[in-house]
Amino acid sequence: MMKMDPVEKALTLRKTLIRDEEVLVADFSNTLQGKDTSRVIDLMPNVSTGEYVFRAKVNIKQLDPLAAKEYGTTFFDISEKTEEEIEDFIKVQEFDFPLWFKHNEEFNNVLDYNTPFIMQVAGCNFHNGYETGGCWYCFVDNESNDGIVATGKTFLRPEDAVESIMAAREKIKDVYAEQGLDLNIKVFRTSGGEPTVALDWILNAWREIGDRGLDFVGQLDSNLSTGMIVDRFEKEGVFEKNILEKLAEYPVKILTAIKGVDEENLQNNVQSAATMQTQEYSILKFLRAGFDIYPQMYNPNPMTLYSYLEDMERVIDNFSLRVHIGPLKLYGPNKKRLEFQAKKLGKDPEAFIEETIKQWKSNYEGGCNVIEDYLYHVHGTHYKKEVRSDIELTINDH
After folding, report:
1. Under 8 Å CB-to-CB from 393, ≥6 apart: which residues?
2. Which of 109, 226, 244, 378 has the greatest number of CB atoms lying within 10 Å of its CB?
3. pLDDT digit string (tens) for 171-206?
4. How far, in Å, CA of 354 to CA of 366, rounded?
């Protein structure tokens, strides 16, 4: 079967994801993502409609007393630690998101950056609409990623998004005050799906935040497939000119999700005709627009990772020092995806899932070993030794 073209899919998604000034987002009420994150902080509604369009993910459970207790992990009390000890602890975790904002002028309490408000654009251009579509390891369920207007999704206005996270922040602040903590959540994260298909909505949301003089910072997720789509949408008048440069004027960091380190690795991971050229083009487009990017790599091929890092550092100085590899875990959505695939192949689902997880683990461990080797030989340092926000990226245009 011919692999889906993610560029053409993005063009199709645009027709369903945007309605006037609104964007189609997931309602987390009955999703496994919603059930997991609400173990610590309840889902949060759109103040205008009551639909639960925001969740708050505690990225590093050990930093949060409520999350540490709920998940049975050791609480790391930052009030008893030095700044260096806090940084050393955070930079080796699966998520180092709180330190991304280290150099922001108002950065003073790392806890304020550990738990973002997350909204999820309800469509991904790697997803073909079927139960086995999209990235194999994606934590988002099929229905929340298919881009179809249906039950479990709703439309959201920029001003309602801002009003909703402001209201939610006050409620959460009160809960943590009872624990003796001053928590003032700062991060507004636009995830998905693929949020860059709706860049105009995201820019309007940040204009709303800026006009109100609010102290939020942002995280924008991207699957690195839409750099050329942005060009096309600007040319056709769908997006205003220089939309990324305008968004980069706000305190927004980009999670650039690297889905593969060679063409076969990439296309196998995302199940579409994505290309390494488009992935690199999208990374460079974010950098040239003025964004601070954080490459998160998923399921790399250890056999080609070293050469990938070499190639990228010919284009972007210090690129490898910014890369983190994300471990893949089995959650409800990706488990269902693998079960459906096993049935299609006539295989035993349990055995197929076990085999897949084993491969994911092997690629993760092998990838970590490769990047450790590369960093030691090329930069004289070790993996996760540096705070990523301290590393400067420079494009080599020669």
Report:
1. 287, 293, 316, 317, 318, 319, 322
2. 226
3. 999 999 998 889 999 999 999 999 999 999 999 999
4. 18
The pLDDT tens digits of the residues spanning 370-381 come to: 999 999 999 999
**Structural domain count, the chain:** 1
Distance, in Å, from the CA atom of 188 to the CA atom of 116, rounded to the nearest integer, reads 6
DSSP codes, 14-59: HHHHEETTEEEEE-GGGSHHHHHHTTTS--EE-TTT--EEEEE--S
Facing residues of 121 across strands? 25, 192
Range of the domain at 121: 6-395
In whole angstroms, what is the distance from residue 339 CA to residue 63 CA?
Answer: 35
Structure tokens at 97: 């998101």
> Does residue 284 sit within a domain?
yes
**pLDDT at residue 398, as a whole number:** 64
DSSP-assigned letters across all residues of 99-146: GGGTTSTT---GGGGSS-EEEEESB-TT--SSTT-S-TT-SS-HHHHB
Q: Which residues of 154-181 are buried (b: 16+ CB within 10 A; e: fewer)?
A: bbbbbebbbbbbeebbeebeeebeeeeb
DSSP 138-177: -SS-HHHHB----TTEEEE-HHHHHHHHHHHHHHHHHHHH
Which pLDDT tens digit goes with each residue over 32-70?
A: 778 877 888 899 999 999 999 999 999 999 999 999 999
In this predicted structure, the answer to whether residue 230 has a pLDDT above a threshold of 80 is yes
Distance CA 205, CA 162 (A): 7
Q: Is residue 1 part of a domain?
A: no
Quick one: which H or E segment has residue 386?
none
CATH number of the domain that residue 355 is part of: 3.20.20.70
pLDDT at 342 over 60: yes
Structure tokens at 135: 């990235």
Residue with tokens 């005709």: 273
pTM: 0.95
344: how many CB neighbours lie within 10 A of its CB? 11
